[in-house]
Amino acid sequence: MFSRPSNARMGRGGHGLLAFVAVVLTGLPCLSQSLIFNETAPQFGAVASGKAGEPKTLSISNATGSPVLIKVITTTQDFAQTNNCKIWLAEGSACLIFVTFTPQSEGRRTGKLTVALIGLGEQAISLNGTGVAQQGANGESAPNEIPASIRTTNNEEKAQELLNEKKDYTFQDLLKKNPEGVADAEKVFSLTNDTQTKMRLASILLSLRVKDGTYFDFLAGEARKALAHDHDMPWPLLYDDQKQQKALNPALNDWCKTHGVDFWDMDKVEFYEMPISWYDLAAAGYPPAYDLLVKGLHSQNLAIVAMAAQGLAKLQDPRAIDELIAVGRQVPGEALGGIVQSLIYFEDPKAQAAAQTLLPEKQRNLLDFYRGQKKASGMRALFQW
Q1: Contact, 96 vs 81, CB < 8 A?
Q2: Is residue 302 classed exposed, middle or buried when 0-12, 13-18 and 19+ CB atoms within 10 A define those classes?
Q3: How far apart are CA 211 and CA 214, in angstroms?
Q4: For the domain bounded by 10-132, which CATH number is listed?
Q5: Residue 315 contacts residue 243 (beta carbons within 8 Å)
Q6: Angle at the Cα of 208 (from 309 to 93), degrees rounded to 5?
């Protein structure tokens, strides 16, 4: 069904499946400071002219009480950027921008990082660095070189350093309760503002029962944000009487036109077809999440339904069987597949019988596929960090 994109270096992206987002823009106030930057005038220090310096990690946080749509992120002159920001940035959430300084000449160089929001204007910060002469053939530094120590450092960069200092390190190590990995993960969680990184870390740490309340509260808060906006955008697909996909939903194209979003850019959005917050909440396998997962099962967003169903399967709480069957009789497409797959993970005969009958006949071959996944990989077939 749905799978969480693998991303050992979490701050660098984690682009997943084609996804769409639920957004409320109607009635948003025009705020001059919708975003908070973790540095307002970052210094890149001294870099040899014509050469790229080390990327600097900056974060932007949504300071409003509603989601904002990011139209474009740009830099000027001697600076370039990549980012892990999607079109939709939820209230209180943050994403990362990686800026590289490549001075084209010697001396003080200035530029600008600009984030344009749909319907809310632009916000920008200044970027500053110094171009210096390259080293001579004998390796000696130019006499007028300015020390690189004037470069500023922020918590995002400290978090990135912890993430990347071991080239062979991945967060799968946390599943083995590696003490050093757990300690590093907790440090990164406390340092970074990046919502994607924090959700993934919280999910893994919660699965290890590390500071249960801290990480559950964070994941539950992010999941509730997605649930609060689950109806704000038309679902991208229409279904026939057999609950099968039949066409793209023209209402989604109308929504894109109304909000100034290119329809074909929607693959950059991560919180609609596969809301990562619900994946991470479900993957944690944390029993107190049961009630929230049941709420997700009744969401208007079919991806949330599918993720919640798989989370309930991981909990193996028998109360979930009747809930899954009832919802499975109503929902189409991706959500129905997720529910059937989840029922297969329960050994209860009632769950197995329902899995056999809920799928339309032409899709019954999926049952053998799901059972094969369960036999070969167990719960890992549902969740892969």
Answers
A1: no
A2: buried
A3: 6
A4: 2.60.40.10
A5: no
A6: 65
pLDDT single digits (tens) 150-206: 889 999 999 998 887 654 445 566 666 677 778 888 999 999 999 999 999 999 899
Nearest to 327 by CA among 339, 319, 315: 339
User: What's 49's DSSP letter?
Assistant: T
Beta-strand pair 245-248/107-117: unpaired
Range 349-365 average pLDDT: 90
d(CA 42, CA 63): 20
Q: What is the pLDDT of residue 261?
A: 83
Q: Please report, for residues 22, 215, 227, 321, the alpha-carbon distance to residue 268 in angstroms, rounded to integers and kept in the order given.
A: 13, 27, 20, 34
Q: Where in the chain is the domain with CATH 2.60.40.10?
A: 10-132
Q: Is the pLDDT of residue 25 over 80?
A: no
* pLDDT tens-digit series, residues 81-118: 999 998 889 999 999 999 999 999 999 999 999 999 99
The confidence score (pLDDT) of residue 184 equals 86
Query: Is a pLDDT exceeding 60 seen at residue 148?
Result: no
Look up residue 125 and give its two tokens.
């910060």
Q: Tokens at residue 238, please?
A: 């229409």
Report the half-sphere exposure of 369 (CA within 13 A, side-chain side): 10
The pair of three-digit structure tokens given for residue 10, joined into one six-digit string: 């979490």
Assigned CATH for 160-381: 1.25.10
Four-point Cα dihedral 102, 105, 107, 110, nearest 10: -50
Strands 43-48 and 68-75: unpaired
Tokens coding 338: 């997720």
CATH 1.25.10 region(s) of the chain? Answer: 160-381
